[in-house]
Amino acid sequence: MTIAVAIVGLGIMGNRMLASLEMHDGFRVAAAWDPNDDARNKATLDFPEVVVVSGLMDAIEAADVDVVYIACPPKAHAEYVSIAVRAGKSVYCEKPLGVDVAESAALVELLASQGIINAVNFPFAANLQVDYLQAALNGGQLGEVLGVDLHLHFNPWPRDWQSAATWLTKRAEGGYLREVGSHFVFLTERLFGEATLVHSSVSYPDNDEACESSFEAALDCSGVPVRMSGTSLGVGPDVVEFTIHGSHKSIRLSNWSEVYLSDGGPWARQDIADADDRRANNARFFSDLHDMFDGNPSGIATFAEALSVQRLIEVILSSGHGC
């Protein structure tokens, strides 16, 4: 079955999704829309085979559309999801699910009540590196899991390739905890179960609109302590490190795709078949995504899972203070 997708939002993620869906035989982009004239015009030039429409409803209500992919900034997610549900379409949404927890909880209830298939774009849900981490845990290779650490550093924030998305610099919708940290909160809950917040601290610039400059948080996942920290202060390369500490071995996912093991000595990079091939991971993810929207079992993240992540992220952010 070929699944027809309408894309709502033609910024960075919308354009990436256009390119990715074109590489998977199971999907077809039926329509695309953005409220910005320049974004629509650019998509028309870059993807001449795609029907770029001038109105939101022209995209969502197109007769052959099966799924609406929502790639706008998070404050608009609830509105567009609700419109898609009323049109009887399945929904695929960017993360974070939203910034208003009550609003997102209402979406989860709405989707459940209508029996609408729903997904959120957390790529770690179907990922070769995460398969390796899960296998190490399941096989007892690490021994007893003693804790998890996530460390993030970005300067500048947002990253250069995101500079056009100015909302990412703002406290209202952006920040690296929502944009990047949410991926790893999802991964933590996928590997270890539901997390609860133990304590957190966030620092913000004096500018009332700017997003966080640093944060620390401690979570508990069924007895597994999880420590999170991040900063956008000071120059230096990006750091994205997710480490699981075990009594026999520890394992680290670094820079999104590099997996390392340590038995107490230096970190040794692991050779994972096809893991360095972005296309292989994309194929794995979109195969699972197709299964979900075709009504088959799938590990792709749901709105309910994304809501759990959002609850934690927003509570952490609310603990902040100016610096």
Question: What's this entry about, in short?
Answer:
With 323 residues, the protein is an alpha/beta fold. Helix content is 34%, strand content 25%. The strands form two sheets. A nine-stranded mixed β-sheet has the order 13-12-11-10-6-9-8-7-14, with helices on one face.
What does this protein look like?
This protein is of the alpha/beta class and 323 residues long. 34% of the residues lie in helices and 25% in strands. The strands form 2 sheets. Strands 13-12-11-10-6-9-8-7-14 form a 9-stranded mixed β-sheet, with helices on one face. The protein has a 5-stranded parallel β-sheet with strand order 2-1-3-4-5, sandwiched between helices. The longest helix has 17 residues, at 176-192. The N and C termini lie far apart (54 Å).
Largest sheet: 9 strands, mixed
> How many beta-strand segments?
14
Quick one: CATH class of the largest domain? Alpha Beta
**CATH level 4 superfamily of the largest domain:** Dihydrodipicolinate Reductase, domain 2
Outline type: globular
What's the oligomerization state?
single chain
What order do the helices and strands follow? EHEHHEHEHEHEHEEEEEEEHHE
Helical stretch tally: 9
Helix content: 25-40%
Structural class: alpha/beta
The CATH topology of the largest domain comes to: Dihydrodipicolinate Reductase, domain 2
What strand order characterises the main sheet? 13-12-11-10-6-9-8-7-14
Poorly predicted sequence stretches spanning 5 or more consecutive residues: none
Q: What distance lies between the first and last C-alpha atoms, to the nearest angstrom?
A: 54 Å
Mean pLDDT: 96
Rg, please?
Answer: 20 Å
CATH architecture of the largest domain: 2-Layer Sandwich
Number of domains: 2
Strand composition percent: 25-35%
